Amino acid sequence: MTKEDLKEIRRINAQLKRHRELLEYLTQKAETIPAIQPKERVQTSPVNSGNEDADSAIDLEIEIRREEDLLRGMQEEARSAFDREKMSFDERRIMEFRYLRCMTWEEIGGEVGYSVRQAIRIHGHVVDRMFKGKMS
What is this structure's pTM? Predict the structure, then answer.
């Protein structure tokens, strides 16, 4: 586990969130069939009946499953790295909230009873200790 791996956990989680939102949009779009209004001109070229959106949604679901598996694996690796480190209770909670639950600094500060600035500072000290002398 490297510093870059910890950053990658956050990146994958953010990408998963975006992909889930896009999947929701595509699913709704594929399930919606617009009605033809009586005064509308009828299009003579083929109309997208939602098949393209449905296909895109299926492809995105596959990608989401792959990303979820990757994220779970990286989080398990992070959990193992955290278990090997000597940390206080609050330090461990901050690291787990940040990388295993992918919480924001505001959420973490509220959970542990610290300001955002204090939580970030504690996190920085833990990361520095974890990777002191290691190439990252």
Answer: 0.78
